[in-house]
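Why does residue order matter? Because the sequence determines the fold. Keep that principle in mind as you read this record.
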Amino acid sequence: MLILVTLIATFITSSLVAPILPSATRDQAYTFTNRSVDYVIEFPSSKWRVLPSSGIVSARTRKEFSYSGKVRVRLLVRRKLVDASTTPSDMVRRRQTWDQHLAGYVLSKEESFSGRLSGTKFSYEYTRGGKPMTAIIYYLEADTRTIYSLLFRGPRDDIQRLHGEADAIARSFRLKRFTRP
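Structure:
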């Protein structure tokens, strides 16, 4: 009799708890790594998804992610080969000359940024289709010839909601450790 009561209690408990668990695990952190890239990113939410490569640009130098759900934010990760004298701040100035022509362009301040890789962070606002948009860009220095850019962009309100996640993602960005056979 005790066994029957225990089985019934276990069944009822699992029936009530099981529907809750998928939503609890849905937002768990996960780590992105892939053979085609030489870095690792830790996402604080499983809502971040890698998008298929276009095939035009190598996945080794360009990878795009999107945040699923009501928030519409994209992350574009690019590896840039630069002159040895180029700094992350130089990359910011180059980007500003291109983006200052966007409608409604308003530059925010540039600031130094440190995580597993250090560099520079800056953001700006602009309008697209009459809607306020925001971009946050992290330029992270891997070595004297390689700088990674992490560009988060989307509607201003959505970017504001995910600003903490963007910082966490940029702080987690690291290179794989390659060993030669």
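Residues 4-25 have pLDDT under 50 and may be disordered.
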